[in-house]
């Protein structure tokens, strides 16, 4: 079963949603389908560049002041920590472009290690407050998937992966994806947002049932059209 996930590595609900999806899959136990996950890019701040801006400052300008920002971040952090995620908005997070991080995730996809690299990027931003436009931070995240630092340096020194990331952003636009996370299951069902694990489990079970082969016909049976001989 193919799972396509549109996400940004500075989206707190994307990190929460990732873990809720994994819990939903675990709820199915032995009935869980085999899945193939593909992560796709989305830019929450397409105007951002590599100049770091304090996240609280950027959010205050966007969401209507310091008090509103502090309340919003506290609620999100509380939800994440209840999920067992070490999200901490007092670590000095900054707003920067995530294009380099998405290029790294594209490379990780080619190497078959998107899951550990993506998790490392989420943790670098939300738990450690590291700058995701910093080449060293990207190299450290890549190491979680066994990608050598030299390979990351070569990637960032070129335009490699840029066309593919731009294509992924265009695909999100073509599909009408305006918020993340968005999970597209087997190209047929879309689940938006960090839904409860039970919702993911229900959708996965439904798709798995649709993919199950029809039971074999008993050769010694009768139906509306007669009996087999």
TrEMBL record:
Gene3D superfamilies: Glutaredoxin (3.40.30.10). This is DsbA family oxidoreductase. It comes from Stenotrophomonas capsici. InterPro entries: DSBA-like_thioredoxin_dom, Thioredoxin-like_sf. It holds the Pfam family DSBA. Transmembrane segments: none annotated. SUPFAM superfamilies: Thioredoxin-like. Residues 3-204 form the DSBA-like thioredoxin domain. It comes from the Bacteria. PANTHER family: GLUTATHIONE S-TRANSFERASE KAPPA (PTHR13887), THIOREDOXIN SUPERFAMILY PROTEIN (PTHR13887:SF41).
């Amino acid at each position: 079963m193919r799972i396509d996930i549109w996400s940004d590595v500075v989206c707190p609900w994307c990190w929460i949603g990732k873990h809720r999806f994994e819990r939903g899959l675990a709820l199915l136990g032995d009935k869980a389908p085999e899945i193939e996950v593909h992560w796709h890019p989305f830019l929450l701040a397409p105007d951002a560049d590599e100049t770091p801006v304090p996240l609280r400052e950027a959010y205050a300008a966007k969401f209507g002041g310091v008090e509103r920002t502090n309340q919003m971040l506290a609620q999100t952090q509380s939800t994440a920590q209840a999920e067992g995620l070490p999200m901490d908005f007092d670590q000095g997070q900054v707003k920067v472009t995530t294009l380099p991080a998405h290029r790294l995730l594209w490379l990780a996809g080619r190497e078959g290690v998107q899951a550990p690299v993506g998790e490392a990027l989420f943790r670098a931003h939300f738990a450690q407050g590291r700058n995701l436009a910093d080449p060293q931070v990207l190299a450290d995240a890549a190491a979680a998937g066994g990608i050598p630092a030299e390979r990351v340096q070569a990637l960032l020194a070129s335009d490699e992966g840029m066309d593919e990331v731009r294509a992924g952003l265009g695909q999100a636009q073509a599909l009408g994806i305006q918020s993340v996370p968005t999970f597209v299951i087997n190209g047929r069902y879309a689940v938006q947002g960090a839904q409860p694990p039970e919702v993911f489990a229900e959708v996965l079970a439904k798709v798995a049932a649709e993919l199950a082969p029809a039971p074999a016909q008993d050769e010694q049976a009768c139906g509306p059209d007669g009996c087999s001989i």
